[in-house]
Amino acid sequence: MKKFKNEAALLKMAIDIGEKYAMNRGYKGFSGTNSAKEKVECLYLLLVQDKLIQALAKGQENQPNMKHKLALWIAKQLPENHPLLKD
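^ that's the sequence the OP posted. Answer follows.
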C-alpha cells in the first residue's frame, strides 16, 4: 500500500471534494455534529457504490484503510505536479 507523505492533507481535500460530490448526488450534506469518522465512512461507501473506488476486502474495512482509499482516490484526480503529491 503506497503511503503518501501528505496523506492527511489529501484526506482533508478528499472529504471536501467528496462532500461536494455527495451533494451533487442529492445528499443534503454533513451537519456540524458529524465526526470525521462518519464522513470518511459515508464518503467511502458512496464512492464504492458509484464504482469510483474499489471496495476493500472483507476484514480490511477499517478507518485507516478507508482513509487511505480516499487519499488514493483524490491523488488520482490531481495533476502529477500538484504540491500534495511531492515526496
